[in-house]
Model the fold of this input.
Amino acid sequence: MSTTANRATTPSLAYVAPGLWGLRNVFVNVYYVRNPNEPADPWVLVDAGLPGSGTKLAHTADALFGPDNPPAAILLTHGHFDHVGGLPHLLETWPNVPVYAHTLELPYLTGRSSYPPPDPTVGGGAMAAMSFLYPKKPLDLGDRVQALPEDGSVPFLPGWRWVFTPGHTPGHVSFFREEDKLLLAGDAFVTTKQESGTAVWLQTQEVHGPPAYFTPNWQQARTSVALLAELNPQIAATGHGIPMRGQELQHQLSDLVENFDHKAVPSHGRYVGQPAEADATGVLSVPPPASLPASVWIAGASLALLGGLLWLKKQDKH
Done:
């Protein structure tokens, strides 16, 4: 089946690189990956989108790989609501498909712990302001989720390795294909200003740090971005924003590393001076919340979120 036909029927689906397609699910990206050298090999899904997106994700898989051809696995960069929302439907649709995540991410995927609360006071945009209303309860995937291999290999994807990139979450990982230096960075860094509703709507393309409102450990986030920059990626496909490539990607990523405190770390906020603490059991402690802004933006954020949820519900019916 031609990719041209696929894009005609699923306009938010885009070819990124050999063996990699990205699907924009409202404001978050999901990736379909297979071995480009062996088209008959199994394929995998990386992340699972927003709540209510499962039907769309499964239909897109059918368009790409044919019906009755489920993935060999679902790989998670992390377990925030906008990266796992389609899992309940997908795991019911694909009853034998396992889910893989870093061992430090498992408490948030087995119902054991919630993530540290978001901080709506950072970021200065509508997406940040709405974050206090985002779903917070963990999924409980039971024995359907397991830890990624300790040796750094990626199940069913030869030539790929996972890279430990905590900060945005305790067990956040990125995926890297050495052959062409293709990076799936999740939310370790993103390619749009995710805190801004305008930037997200327009998909303004530029390298930014992890979404500030959901990042509870800035020290780890800084180290993770520097680690990814050292890989010298030629293509970066991130959890939010349009994939970037080549010299522009490398220039902006290097600039982010050199000026991380200025460009990524908020000037104030709940986790700026003191990170949340977590281990393999989940969250251990969080600092006290920062003072909330005026109620005007809270009311506006509530209305915006309500509109967004209604729009999401409508989209899932198509």
Summary: Confidence is low (pLDDT under 50) at residues 1-10, 309-318. The first strand starts at residue 13 and ends at 17.
